[in-house]
Write a structure and sequence with these properties.
By secondary structure, this protein is of the alpha/beta class. It is built from 10 helices and 4 strands, in the order H-E-H-H-H-H-E-H-H-E-H-H-E-H. InterPro entries: GDSL, GDSL_lipolytic_enzyme, SGNH_hydro_sf, SGNH_plant_lipase-like.
């Protein structure tokens, strides 16, 4: 069984392998709050009250969360928003801004605006009825005004500028929108240019609102995920090379764009997080197994109550 510390190490050191943000005089090392934007990688429950089928607030989601409660996180326990916040000494769980249970005392230490199923392309969010990046940005602007009213303008500005912001997007654009809509009629190189441009604009909008520390997650190795293997991996469920190449192509462009932003704005501590491909490739090293099927009890997708892995601490 993989212990929580190992999982945290995987997420922090592999998923987001980079140096920690610059420190200052805060008790927790200079990070007073954590905010997250993007998709299901970071969503802690913003879809719960939306009219959408893309939800994580039903079993078996949440089976390892305290109390075994499905919270809207698209995983069995806590997700990277929570684990990174805890590792930085901020708090153990990051509430969803639209989760329905947000308290004023939660605001100064951060919330998540991420929405499962969202993407950079507005079409992606529209298809699934979830929060687009522009909607997430408007909610962040609303949050800042609430924070100012709560702690004052000077302290609110400090919190936003010293907070760590996580951003994960592009996965659903490549895996869903590009293949399931007429978008695939255009070359992927052109589509990916639009995605990178959209991400850059979103990042600069956050900068304009005072954000100065940001981790940008590259897309997952989409062709090696269980769903990708099931759809395009053949009878042996190998990684789907074309999808992986497209993800890598996008990631390279994204990294270049982030590097350009960092060079133009020296006060912007923005980094690109490494993806999980090493964990997927070397799962036995990390004591994980069952990498090829979309779930443990059949070769179909893991949807609602169709089943789940009994030994989820050993599966990925």
């Amino acid at each position: 069984m993989v212990h929580l510390k190992t999982l945290v190490a995987v997420l922090i050191l592999v998923f987001c392998a980079m140096s920690a943000p610059k420190t200052s005089a805060d008790n927790n090392g200079g990070v007073p709050a954590l905010f997250s934007f993007g998709d299901s990688i970071l969503d802690t429950g913003n879809n719960n009250l939306l009219i959408t089928l893309t939800k994580g607030n039903y079993p078996p989601y949440g089976r390892d969360f305290p109390g075994g409660i499905p919270t809207g996180r698209f995983c069995n326990g806590r997700n990277p928003s929570d684990l990174i916040a805890e590792a930085l000494g901020v708090k153990a769980t990051v509430p969803a801004y639209l989760g329905g249970s947000l308290r004023d005392e939660d605001l100064p230490t951060g919330v998540t605006f991420a929405s499962g199923g969202s993407g950079i392309d507005p079409v992606t969010s529209g298809i699934q009825g979830v929060l687009s990046l522009s909607s997430q940005l408007r909610l962040f602007e609303q949050y800042i005004e609430r924070l100012k009213a709560l702690v004052g303008e000077e302290r609110a500005s400090y919190i936003v500028s010293h907070a760590l912001v996580l951003y994960s997007s592009g996965n659903n654009d490549i895996a869903i929108t590009y293949y399931d809509t007429l978008t695939h009629l255009q070359p992927f190189s052109i589509y990916s240019d639009g995605l990178v441009s959209g991400s850059s604009k979103f990042i600069m909008s956050l900068y304009g609102l005072g954000v100065r520390r940001m981790w940008v997650f590259s897309t997952l190795p989409l062709g090696c995920l269980p769903g990708g293997r099931t759809i395009a991996g053949g009878p042996l469920r190998f990684c789907a090379p074309i999808v992986n190449l497209q993800a890598q192509f996008f990631n390279a462009k994204l990294a270049s764009a982030v590097s350009s932003i960092r060079s133009r704005y020296p006060d912007f501590d923005i980094r690109v997080c490494r993806r999980l491909r090493g964990v997927l490739r070397d799962c036995s090293f990390w004591s994980f197994r069952i990498m090829y099927h979309a779930k443990c009890v059949s070769r179909s997708f893991h949807i609602r109550f169709l089943g789940f892995c009994a030994s989820n601490g050993e599966s990925l």
